[in-house]
């Protein structure tokens, strides 16, 4: 793992001294004498730079913390392997570590990153054919699920959860089975990503509460 990043210096104040006068670049890249900039704009600039300085420092701390967490979990697994000749963990490296009193736990999960190949369009054509052939015999819920499953969002992403829900439907139709086979062949595992989550509870009968490291959820 790469070395942890060093603490960054405070964010620059954005001023430039030229021939004894202070200037700042505006959003068009032009140099403007600071004496001509309205006080509220200077105050806004200072406020944003102060907040960004704290945000960048916190982001760097979280990056280092995440790296150290995975290192600690990996080191523990290696120690177990050395002692028992077996690794602690489940499928794909998922692992849960708990305190002895059962009040704190760390959960590391490895999730596949998926993409979809050209077979997806074949599957969509076959599914559309099924819906057309069934006509009024198709349940409205299935029609809605099909439309939802193959819908592309603003970022061009397919609704994976809905596609997998579609595959779980038990429909006795040959064309539908061909469609689901094409859908299965379209799935590509292009990588994986590790996630770590932290939980605590006040006593053994209480529900687990996540320890959030998320500005939106704080």
Automatic annotation (TrEMBL):
Superkingdom classification of source: Bacteria
Organism: Rhodopseudomonas rhenobacensis
Protein name: Sulfate transporter
InterPro entries reported in the protein's UniProt record: Phage_B3_Orf6
């Amino acid at each position: 793992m790469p070395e942890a990043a060093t603490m960054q210096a405070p964010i620059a104040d954005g001023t430039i001294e030229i021939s004894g006068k202070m200037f700042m670049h505006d959003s068009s890249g032009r140099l403007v004498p600071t004496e001509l900039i309205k006080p509220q704009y200077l105050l806004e600039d200072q406020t944003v730079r102060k907040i960004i300085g704290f945000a960048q420092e916190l982001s760097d701390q979280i990056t280092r913390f995440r790296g150290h967490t995975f290192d600690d979990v990996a080191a523990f697994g290696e120690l177990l392997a050395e002692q028992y000749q077996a690794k602690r963990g489940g499928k794909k490296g998922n692992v849960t570590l708990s305190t002895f009193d059962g009040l704190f736990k760390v959960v590391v999960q490895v999730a596949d990153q998926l993409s979809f190949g050209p077979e997806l369009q074949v599957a969509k054509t076959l599914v559309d054919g099924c819906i057309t052939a069934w006509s009024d015999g198709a349940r409205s819920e299935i029609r809605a699920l099909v439309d939802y499953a193959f819908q592309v969002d603003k970022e061009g992403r397919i609704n994976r959860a809905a596609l997998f829900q579609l595959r779980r439907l038990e429909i006795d139709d040959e064309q539908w089975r061909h469609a689901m086979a094409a859908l299965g062949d379209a799935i590509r595992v292009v990588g994986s990503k590790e996630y770590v989550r932290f939980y605590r509870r006040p006593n053994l009968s209480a529900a687990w509460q996540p320890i959030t490291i998320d500005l939106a959820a704080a």
